[in-house]
Amino acid sequence: MAGSTFGDSFRVMTWGESHGKGIGVVVDGCPAGLPLSRTDIQALLDRRRPGQSRFTTQRDEADEVEIVSGIFEGRTTGTPISLEVRNTDQRSKDYSAIKDVYRPGHADMTFDAKYGFRDYRGGGRSSGRETIGRVAAGAIALKLLGSLGIRICAYTKSVGPITVDPERFDLKKMWENRLYMPDEQAAGEAGAYLEEAMARKDSVGGVAECMIFGLPAGVGEPVFDKLDACLAKAILSIGGVKAFEIGDGLQAAKAFGSGNNDPFRLDENGQVHKETNHAGGILGGISDGAPVIFRAAIKPTPSIASVQKTVTRDGREQELEIKGRHDPIIVPRAVVVVEAMAALTVADLLLRGMTSRMEWIHKIYGGPYEDRDGE
Amino acid sequence: MAGSTFGDSFRVMTWGESHGKGIGVVVDGCPAGLPLSRTDIQALLDRRRPGQSRFTTQRDEADEVEIVSGIFEGRTTGTPISLEVRNTDQRSKDYSAIKDVYRPGHADMTFDAKYGFRDYRGGGRSSGRETIGRVAAGAIALKLLGSLGIRICAYTKSVGPITVDPERFDLKKMWENRLYMPDEQAAGEAGAYLEEAMARKDSVGGVAECMIFGLPAGVGEPVFDKLDACLAKAILSIGGVKAFEIGDGLQAAKAFGSGNNDPFRLDENGQVHKETNHAGGILGGISDGAPVIFRAAIKPTPSIASVQKTVTRDGREQELEIKGRHDPIIVPRAVVVVEAMAALTVADLLLRGMTSRMEWIHKIYGGPYEDRDGE
Amino acid sequence: MAGSTFGDSFRVMTWGESHGKGIGVVVDGCPAGLPLSRTDIQALLDRRRPGQSRFTTQRDEADEVEIVSGIFEGRTTGTPISLEVRNTDQRSKDYSAIKDVYRPGHADMTFDAKYGFRDYRGGGRSSGRETIGRVAAGAIALKLLGSLGIRICAYTKSVGPITVDPERFDLKKMWENRLYMPDEQAAGEAGAYLEEAMARKDSVGGVAECMIFGLPAGVGEPVFDKLDACLAKAILSIGGVKAFEIGDGLQAAKAFGSGNNDPFRLDENGQVHKETNHAGGILGGISDGAPVIFRAAIKPTPSIASVQKTVTRDGREQELEIKGRHDPIIVPRAVVVVEAMAALTVADLLLRGMTSRMEWIHKIYGGPYEDRDGE
Amino acid sequence: MAGSTFGDSFRVMTWGESHGKGIGVVVDGCPAGLPLSRTDIQALLDRRRPGQSRFTTQRDEADEVEIVSGIFEGRTTGTPISLEVRNTDQRSKDYSAIKDVYRPGHADMTFDAKYGFRDYRGGGRSSGRETIGRVAAGAIALKLLGSLGIRICAYTKSVGPITVDPERFDLKKMWENRLYMPDEQAAGEAGAYLEEAMARKDSVGGVAECMIFGLPAGVGEPVFDKLDACLAKAILSIGGVKAFEIGDGLQAAKAFGSGNNDPFRLDENGQVHKETNHAGGILGGISDGAPVIFRAAIKPTPSIASVQKTVTRDGREQELEIKGRHDPIIVPRAVVVVEAMAALTVADLLLRGMTSRMEWIHKIYGGPYEDRDGE
Predict the structure, then answer these.
(1) Are B364 and D363 in contact (CB < 8 Å)?
(2) Which residues does chain A have within 8 Å of residue B218's beta carbon, measured at their own beta carbons?
(3) In terms of CA atoms, which chain A residue is nearest residue B305?
(4) Which of A47, A122, C215, D133 could form an S-S bond across to D14 if both were Cys, CB 3.0 to 4.6 Å?
């Protein structure tokens, strides 16, 4: 049973390979009546496009999305929305160098182990290019969430050892540097750090952080489909992610209960709120009304230009030197993917949560009516 | 759409509340012919049972499991296996103190937000007692995996700031202390640390680590149901878990590609293996044949005896003093739950993976036959 | 991947065998706040209970249901509802006569082919007793539907060649005969017909019909989870059902379009309605507001007392004489199962349909808010 | 939760509207290593293409399929296969005549009731053109089944009152007439019958029958996902189908048990077989090794040229005269859709069934190994 489907109520199925004809996604379950244009989707795709700075691969593709179904007169119809991006830079290269070689840190070996063979061109289905489908679908989810007053924002929190300083944290700044760091000074240092690594033919890891604002309390499905559990799966499903933290994350393991619990108070309107947010906006797997905050630790790009030891699929040891230009860090291009996956997760759980209470059922379908004579 | 179902091919549905009549689980999809006895399940349940040391709650229940269906003449029949544990210590207490109060760090407020009301007795469905169903089902998954030569082992890696020393690491030692720490000295220090916190009416967080041995390469379903993604969801769905790391986890974010990539080599039998295991046994979301290693960071027990600020469901601020004896740390009792969830995840993906290749289909059903005249 | 789960939003998992410890079901996804008592469920179960007339098996069990979880203070909590009925008449009989024999018309041979062996006691999981779980869960669905003003009623339409006369059709009459036929005269003739068959050690087939009143227009999920498609699956999943018809059913195949189309008109309130209902209340897989009407053709009871030719599992031909008393017809006891399966199907699709429109999302979660600055 | 997904292990998601840009499907879960070419798919699509005879609509489109992903070097890779057919004849017509009118027998009214509005061009998503995705995916399933020695064949069994004579039944003949009737004489009479109806501006219903040969015993998942239940859903999900019969179908309701039971015997090789096949190849929801035989009753084409009474979406009564040329009968073009849906159902259940037995698990993954020390 294959795994290219995500979500239940807001469900997406992605398809496509790095050097096939294209990449796409079908969204099944987007409610009818959402205003949606090609621009809504292209805008998000443009943020993950390669070739935009010296820190991203030079593959130069416009990644233009086409909406092939599901929209009529500017609104979603409730039927499947098919989106596709045709590959335009997949010129037939000479793949003989990597055809039979297992690149370290890549999925070459494991795809062979699972399927018996693989599309070796540019990583095939395991390429980062696969995330185009996620981002395209995520743009629809973000539009839906926006109409409910929910905003999602992801950014680069750290590049190697260089981290955004909480005192200098300014979300607007993330749009001013290609690393998407909301701290100008850290971005500068990180750039220099990356240049150095690139000069050594090496790559660097980092951390993306994501915030969800405006999510009402009550979203998430205990006991297995908790909001944090679903987010963790969504984020770990992105290539290269090695850790997921919600709220205080790892620090919670070193804390005391007295410091980690968030005290409840009433705000000026008499509404329940939490004085602190160590929990990251989720209690018992259900949103608590505070901002949801999580982080993803992402490994260094596995494609590096320096010589590596490896083996071939027919069992010979060999040295490998990966040609071409690769992103020296995954994080800046991954932030928009993190945002997309968070949006898909939250949209799905919001729709699923509509069946939580009889009073909501009655709001849609009428009733309750007296059930005088039982069954 | 509710969330008490886990898994697709090896699917479980859990039910039950802390102070209802009992807790249980139905396992739908366990293959026919697996030898299984009540003892297989009870043995695992006994490891999560309360009242076993000064570091666990005094609720004293035998938690005896009954197999109600699905087994015939000592083997699974392929039909649903229903397991249940009746609650015996749910004497009708006076809940008036917590009935209307939102305990900080608990799901009281969020359950109300989601469902409109809640079973407040002992946390109801959000109680840690819910994990009985997971452990009971996990015992079946472990039995299945054992017959394939796959072993899973979880233990306490750290208690607050006290961590197992890699040099003293000895798995056998974990059975000699009630904290399940595979390092005698660390266990001693951790015990003292806990005593101190308890004296201050406080609680402590920690980290559980889990290893999966013998898993063949090729397990996991790109692109969304990757092995690490599914494990992350499984582990984050356990109450109190705030972070998940696979392999080097957070450290990978600070590493260079040259150091983080695991070089492939041939072993003495000519088999591909990795010289290191920074990846934690997973590449591209598929097992690579090396041990799978992951960690869960778990917050301090939210139930603490010291006075806390909170509010009531009808909007009054109030101070709360939680009575009774509670575990000062969740981790030691959670390790068996981590093991169970890992087993459920791996069993499900192993079964799902059987359809990955035509040659495996033919192994079961015969063929391939020439398809002379096509469709 | 096993098949004991039904439904997505209103999801049930059934378990249990004829001669095991019991039969049960877990309902995951019933919205919170539905008033529900043990009596609601027992009342429906009593209608499928054996031993109530000369036309049903003499197995005499009270089939008392226990609600083990999911209800608090008389209402559903939104968490899983576990229901179970313990078997009380499963005394250890001598099964040596049928242990190795494949009873014609039964699933003995196919269970062996699928699972490699089977629980042969009383048919094990393939026994009609399995439907207890369906009926128990169906009672909850009926209660939910009742609160929305939706009623479901199934009855025996024909016994062998004897059919209810439309001119004498009177739903109230079905409660006055044990065959649940809404036509006194037909019931009398059918009784005589059955007596005759029983005297010949034979059994008889028949047809159940079901009506769903009050279902609003708009329920059903094109293109695969259409209301009629889901009903067909639900009904064919009941043991012994060999055909499903919606509306005019088979007759539609002989009709002309001019006669089969239902003309739309306005009623006195200016509401759209159909002058006729050949479609059976469903157009394009979605309810159209007219009553939903469908039929299930059910085969004769396969357990007959006369001598039959068969084989054993180890490959010997043998004659078989099935001992004991069996229902001479399945239909009258199946009607309540048909009702239950219809209720489970409709409840699930109603809940699923809540996400069809943005305006319904906004009714629950607020908005729409202007999305001024796009993504 | 939308319904454009079918299948679990062999899962398809279809998309597209009659007069949008195109129609397509993504197949997620086809095992790796199946030889597959564009021709395999186009050949099946050509059979459902319009404009091929005087009994089909004149919409003249080549319906050329493109394989956009999932195939490498002539074989499936195990990753999603995206197929699409671009619409070429969807010239912008004047839809003002039907834009606001509810066509009797169509889904116009119910789509409005469900989604609040609809794509009215040519029926949008509810058009028969939607089945292109089913047929394209079905071609892959048929190829997979063919490699296992399983064949599926559907044909027209009756047109209005004219039925294939069992004595003249000859499968080869179905390829010689455009009605796909395996009886030359019946085909001739049916043609005349259709001409007459067309002259009266009317349409005709009929019955499609389908046979599945070579299916091994043991396929189907009790208790809800029985083979016949899944087939029933698959077939009823095709637009216009009003009844489903397996084996003797409705006739079983009139039979006696002694006549309806299929006696088991041993064949010349000592294998169990059934002397008759009233059951239609399925016992207890599991294939029994005999050919699976089922029928679908299909209503007359709802689009007829004669004047009909109807209403508009804004509540006015109106007469409707549907322009243009429409198929006078659905059945001949539906047979290939029936075949496709049967193939998708059987492929899915075959893959799902691989996890039924521990011995099959061990065949793929090795073992069983002794489980010496507990779990």
Answers:
(1) yes
(2) 110, 113-114
(3) A258
(4) D133
Query: Is A355 in Cβ contact with C31 (below 8 Å)?
Result: yes
Q: Spell out where A267-315 has E strands.
A: 272-274, 282-283, 286-287, 292-298, 308-311
The span from the CA of A116 to the CA of B353, in Å, is 12
- Residue B147, token pair as written in the block: 């017959």
CA distances from B190 to A277, B57, B159, B176, B211 (A): 27, 18, 6, 14, 22
Give residue-wise pLDDT tens across range C250-296: 999 999 999 999 999 999 999 999 999 999 999 999 999 999 999 99
Q: How many CB atoms lie within 10 A of CB A307?
A: 12
Q: Above 60 in pLDDT, residue C216?
A: yes
Which residues, numbered 275 to 304 in chain A, qualify as contacts with chain B under a Cβ-Cβ cut-off of 8 Å? 275, 279-280, 282-289, 297-304
D365 and B350 in contact (C-beta within 8 Å)?
yes
Task: State the smallest CA–CA distance between residue B103 and chain A in angstroms.
Answer: 8
Determine the pLDDT at residue B371: 58
A78 vs C: CB within 8 A: yes
Tens-place pLDDT, residues D194-227: 999 999 999 999 999 999 999 999 999 999 999 9
Beta strand pairing call for B11-16 and B5-6: antiparallel
The partner residues of B205 in beta bridges, in order of sequence, read: none
Residues of chain C with pLDDT > 90, as a percent, come to 87
> Is the per-residue pLDDT at B244 higher than 90?
yes
Q: Does A357 touch chain C (CB under 8 A)?
A: yes
Q: Residues of A numbered 171-210 whose beta carbons fall under 8 angstroms of chain B's beta carbons: which are they?
A: 197, 200, 202-207
Choose, out of A364, A369, A370, A373, the residue to mutate when testing the contact with C (most C CBs < 10 Å).
A364
Q: What is the DSSP string of C302-363?
A: S--SS-EEEEBTTS-EEEE---S---SBSHHHHHHHHHHHHHHHHHHHHHHGGGSBHHHHHH
Q: Which of D281, D205, D293 is nearest to D242 (CA)?
A: D205
CA D213/CA D156 separation, integer angstroms: 18
Q: Model-level pTM?
A: 0.97
Contact B254, A205 (CB under 8 A): yes
Closest CA to D283 of C242, A363, B342, A116: C242
How far is residue D287's CA from residue D290's CA, in Å, rounded to a whole number?
8
How far does the CA of residue A60 sit from the closest CA of chain C (Å)?
Answer: 23
- Give the residue from chain B lying closest to A12, CA to CA: B224
Residue A35: both structure tokens together: 């205003």
Among B2, B11, B84, beta carbon nearest to C29: B2
Q: Does the beta-carbon distance from C80 to B13 stay under 8 Å?
A: yes
Measured CA distances, D171 to D176, D215, D279 (Å): 10, 19, 21
Structure token digits, residue B2: 């509710």
Q: How many CA atoms lie within 13 A of B370 on its CB side?
A: 2
d(CA C52, CA C333): 10
Q: Which of D249, D297, D306 sits opposite C253 (nearest CB)?
A: D297
pLDDT in tens, B120-167: 998 899 999 999 999 999 999 999 999 999 999 999 999 999 999 999
Encoding tokens for residue B97?
């103190």
Q: What pLDDT, on a 0 to 100 scale, did the predictor assign at position B374?
A: 46
Distance CA C180, CA C206 (A): 12
DSSP-based three-state secondary structure for A67: strand
Are D77 and D104 in contact by the 8 Å Cβ rule? The answer is no
What CA–CA distance (Å, rounded) separates A33 from A354?
A: 17
CA distance B155 to B134: 17
- Of B303, B255, B302, B300, the C-alpha closest to B279 is B255
The closest alpha carbon to C148, from C220, C59, C219, C196, belongs to C219
